[in-house]
Structure formats: structure tokens, C-alpha cells
Amino acid sequence: FVFNRETGEPLFPIEERPVPASTLPGEQTSPTQPFPVKPPPFSRHRLTEDELTDISPESRKFIMDKINGARLGSIYAPPSAEGTLQVPGTRGGAEWGGAAVDPRTGILYVNANEVPLLLRMKEIEVEGQEEFLASAGKRIYNVNACSSCHGADLKGNNIFPSLTGLSKRRNENEIAALLKTGKGQMPAFPNISNEDLDALLAFLFEKKDLKNPRFTAVKNSAEREYRFIDDVWNVLFDQNGYPGVKPPWGTLNAIDLNKGEIVWRVTLGMYPELIEKGLPPTGTQNLGGPAVTAGGLVFIGATRDKKFRAFDKDTGAILWEYDLPGGGNATPSVYEVNGRQYVVVAAGGGGRVGSPTSDAYVAFTLKE
To answer: Does the model's pTM come out above 0.90?
Structure first.
């Protein structure tokens, strides 16, 4: 969406278009959503079976088995009990790194991911009457959507860690503190009651024999309260960790905000092992934004392959690249000292897109 920054008026028309309705009992969704006529989307807004991965027969079969009857829809398709493939998805489209804009040309540069999310909803009881504390903890685990990241079976996935065997790695005080304060991508739950916290810890630390002090006689099923939650936060990857759709999986885009047109789009990132098999560059999942300079360059790290690249801002051609010690999952900063221009990027990696961890900041400048 592009608006006049002083008046708030849209620069291009916005249309209300029909979108799929929710199929969950009791849930009502808007029949329409706003769509800008220009510029066109810079990541997929619709997914068909033909767009599922074909990098190998094994990968395609794995993905077809994984989605198993899920709805292949479009942007704004609501989650469902049978499963919905969400595009762009919470790991797709533009990420938190943001975009860069050249104020002289009105060109916006933004990187994007093509990584759908598979959402399946399940019905759970909100207010249970469990006899054992761990059973109450399991309900609280689900109600607070912990299972969306770590899985109903506590085994996690390729993004969020497993919680099985937690007692061998952490103590209860550490986990209680983490639940109250959060850390990194782990949200805080400051309002969780002491009773619910005790039950949750009993579940996580497998204390199955502890009695629930709040246990009362089981209510009639008609009196119980239920709700739907996300069964698991499942990014659509194949058995080898590659996105479950046809490439490109990561792109860098130049968008003319005056005309509402995409000027160029290039793949961003590569998997060396796929290049060796004869595949063209596919792009990779990327986190971290670009920086554009008056000298005609767009700098960006962000990719799984931990490279830092400079692109020609007019054509999208790669002019230079450098292997960082870890993933450059941050937006670069451009600055000047004593008349010399520098560009610096935090190369922390940390495994968020599969790149190694580092504690380095790396700065570059031209030779004198």
C-alpha cells in the first residue's frame, strides 16, 4: 500500500475483493479485504498444486503427504481444521528487516521469502477439571499456544527447540523465569497465575503423579468451554529443509513507488549443494533488510548462505559478494568517518535461517 505521507490519501486505487470465509464453528470473518491495484505483489499471494516443489520426486511426494488434504488457498484464507496453506505465511513475504528507499528516484528495495505456512486448527477445552497437575499443565500448554511452536508432542521443529527431556537440561526455576520474561523469539507470559505455572511445569518436567489441588468433579460436557487453537506452527519445508514450493525461495525486489511497477526482481541467496546438482540459483530464506546508497548500490546480507552482497540498484546485477563468518541477519548501516564511507553489518547468524552463529560485526570500505 502506498500513501501520500502528508494527507494519507492512497496513490493508487484500493479495491475491496472477496476472500474465503472461515469454516470453523462460531467464527465469522470479513467477506472482503482491501487490495491495492498497484504495485503488484512482490511475493506469492496464491498457491496451487502446480506451484508445489518439484526439485525432486522425493521432495514433491513428501510435501504432498505433509499437506494431506489441506486447503491450497490465497492470502487472507483463514486457518481451518483440515489445514490451510497460508501464503505469504508468517515466514514469507517481507520480514522485520524492512525495506530501503532511494529518495531521488522513489524506488523501494525489499527482500522477500517464499515460504508458506501450514496451519491446522484443533479444538481444546479451555477450563478443565483434571485430577493430575500434569494433565492440567498440558491443557494450559495448548491454551497458551505453546504447541504452535514446540508441537503438541513437545518435539519442536526445524525452527523451535524440542522440550522433550527438559529436566536433563534445565531446572524448574530457569523455565519459570523464562516463561515470565521471555527471550529472543520466545514471548513472555507475565500474567500466568502461580497455579497455572505450577501445572505447566509439572507437564514440562513430566511429574505425572502430582495431584491437582484444584480438582473437582467433572462437569457435564455441555457445560465445558472449548476453543480452537493452532495445532502446530509448521513451516512448509521438505524432508531436506528446503521450502515446499517451486523456486525462487528468496528474492530482492525493486519497486517504483511513483509508477506502481516492479522494476526488477532477482533471486537472493543460493544452496551450493543444489548448484552442484545443476539447479539454477533458487534463493534462500532471508532475514535482514537492505541499504541503498547514493553511489548506486544496494547492500544486503540476510541469506542462509551467509554472504554479504552489493547489487546494482538500477539493474539488480550482483557486483560484489563476501562470505561472512555467520549469517548477516540484520540491516546494514552506512556511515562516514573522516571523509571515508563505510558499510557495516552484524553477522550474528544464530540459526534463524540455517546459517552458523557468530559474534562479529564486519565493516567494509573502499581501498584508499
So the answer is: no
Ramachandran assignment for 271, one of left (phi > 0), alpha (psi -120 to 50 degrees), beta (any other): beta
101 vs 332: CA distance, rounded Å: 14
Tell me the β-bridge partners of 104: none
Whether the CB-CB separation of 114 and 249 falls below 8 Å is answered with yes
Q: Is 232 helix (H, G, I), strand (E, B) or coil?
A: coil
Distance (Å, whole) CA 276 – CA 254: 29
CA torsion 19-20-21-24 (nearest 10°) is: -140
* Chain segment 112-134, per-residue pLDDT in tens: 999 999 988 888 776 666 788 88
DSSP one-letter code for 82: S
Alpha carbon distance 310, 51 (integer Å): 30
How many angstroms separate the first and last alpha carbons of the chain? 43
Residue 190: CB atoms within 10 Å: 9
Q: How far apart are CA 178 and CA 37, in angstroms?
A: 45
Work out the number of other CB atoms within 10 angstroms of the CB of residue 330: 18
- Provide the pLDDT confidence category of residue 219 given band limits of 50, 70 and 90: low
**Inter-CA distances, 216 with 31, 141, 172, 202, Å:** 43, 20, 26, 19
- Give the chain's radius of gyration (CA, Å): 24
